Amino acid sequence: MEYRFTLPIKPEDIKKLKVGDILYVTGKIFTARDEAHHLMLEKKSIPFDPSDMGLFHCGPLMKKVGDRWEVVSAGPTTSSRMEIFEDKFIEKFKINLIIGKGGMGKNTQKALQKYICIYASYTGGAGALAAEKAEEVENVFWLDELGMPEAVWIMRVKEFGPLVIAMDSHGKSIFNRN
Amino acid sequence: MDSKDLEKGIVQLIKKAETELPKDVITALEKAYKVEIGIAKTQIGAILENIKLAKKTGRPMCQDTGIQTFFVEVGVDFPEISKLKRIITGGVKKATKDIPIRPNTVDPFTGVNHKDNTGDNVPYITWDFTDGSDVTITALPKGGGSENMSKLGMLKPGVGIEGVKNFVVEEMIKAAGQPCPPTIVGIGIGGGADLSLKLGKKALLRPVGVRNNDKNIAKIEEELIKRINASGIGPMGLGGKITVLDVHIEKAHRHPASLPVGLAVQCWADRRAKMIIHKNGSWEVK
Questions:
Q1: Among the four residues A113, A148, B222, B286, which has the most C-beta atoms within 10 Å?
Q2: Is A170 an annotated catalytic residue?
């Protein structure tokens, strides 16, 4: 099945999504890699509310034009590096959509079921395609501290995809085919 | 010789590598698109669309623009050999801003990003010397996701070539979707630990579809392609027929007690470009 949703996705819609479905999303997503996961979990409060956004495992290539940032290239990074943080991250920030590549482990799989969340795979390396779907960079946090790839970038995307539902909220994973 | 002009040439070389995939790789991906169905086909479709967009818009095809890696063949009669390293480094700094490419060099101790793609021992340059007066620089920007799947196997010579083949297949199955398949696998066999890995990386310079000159090695390359593709890992690890676009093997004679196998993995974005500098300072990028 192919779905088109506006973010945030309602829990009943998350439940509809099954491994192998194709998804396109419109709305706000934020990038976070290893360092940003670590920092956001450590902090008592953060300057934005991730709960209505998709989490994108991505270290984008950005360009400053005047006083605005533009997305040059922004494909996914390898998700397995975030496995050590992700269950705690889902619990703390109430996110229900994770976009990355390569799949995640058992702890994330359990958290996806417990908190009704999905993991969607975006084509690795398709950075130019992703950039074309990014309409606006809304904000950036911890840029000086973490540098461009590791900073948290908030961007508005339109028809972002094709995303493949790779791990769903029912305990299924495309990566454990037998 | 005009160093500033040559730095511009390096920027053009990097831009070509980052925004235009070599024809041999595109042809292999187009073939994969025909063979695949379902989700695997959507992945190759997205890759092909991405390649077109990158070329059209001048955007780097992948946000991970890699560690800038160069293989330089210096003609011994080239008059200004001593300037080459500075020109390459200067070009990398300029490319970071002008193209732009992602600042990808981080101090391993402090975690501080150098912000211009240079730093201690990077860009990574391999120097070779040859006859004549031309300099040929091959750029191979190398992404982190695929590089993280590199492996060194110091095998026991007793396992023989069968053991080498099994090691490669097992490691590629373990890597699964992480190195952004369909990948190109470079294998260096023999030499020492460092040489085998170096040969593996050098093997990636060979165009996709070109076999080793040695017929027996060429057969092993073909066998490995079949065995890795039989895993069903498929594009992005989501399942499918094509997990590798090609396997390239290079060899060196080994110590009697050692059988090193260096595995270099390249994502589908097998970015390569060439620049030739002539002795009068004129240059071209191919």
A1: A148
A2: no
